[in-house]
């Protein structure tokens, strides 16, 4: 699986002029399933999201995870949005190829697995709608943007 993680002050995703999901401080996670991905990859991605230490501690070091933003156990939000375009191949021509993305049914199942596992393990999880045209609004904090590849 591929993911692009952005540390945010707040973020929301809209579908057809309604808010499908929103968070305060936390992580906006754009997720793309690939053809060889399995539910085990989804679990590994969620584990990494919850443990990744990219929030500043009192000394200004990236030492805290989304599970403990302030050092007192306050969790941040996870806004998880499907984005098959992360698998774009632009090496040939000017139109991207998305052959590196999982087929729609597999991609949806894996996206839903990521959401379900995140919701089972973290109190503040929101998502978009797989396959929908979405508008994502965010205030990037830092900015901190980290690509992840889960093998």
Gyration radius, to the nearest Å?
A: 15 Å
Provide a count of the helices: 2
- What is the overall silhouette? globular
Show unreliable segments.
none
CATH class, named Alpha Beta
User: What is the assembly state of the chains in this entry?
Assistant: single chain
Structural class call reads alpha/beta
Under the CATH scheme, the architecture is: 3-Layer(bba) Sandwich
Average pLDDT confidence is 97
The largest sheet is: 6 strands, mixed
Helix content: 10-25%
Number of self-contained structural domains: 1
CATH H-level superfamily: D-tyrosyl-tRNA(Tyr) deacylase
Q: Which features would summarize this protein structure in a list?
A:
two-stranded antiparallel ribbon, six-stranded mixed sheet, 2 helices, alpha/beta, D-tyrosyl-trna(Tyr) Deacylase, Chain: A, 151 residues, single chain
Reconstruct the topology from this structure.
Layout lengths: L1 E14 L2 E6 L2 E7 L6 H13 L3 E2 L5 E3 L12 E6 L21 H18 L3 E3 L6 E16 L2
Parallel strand pairs: 3-6, 6-7
Antiparallel strand pairs: 1-2, 1-3, 1-8, 4-5
Helix pairs in contact: 1-2
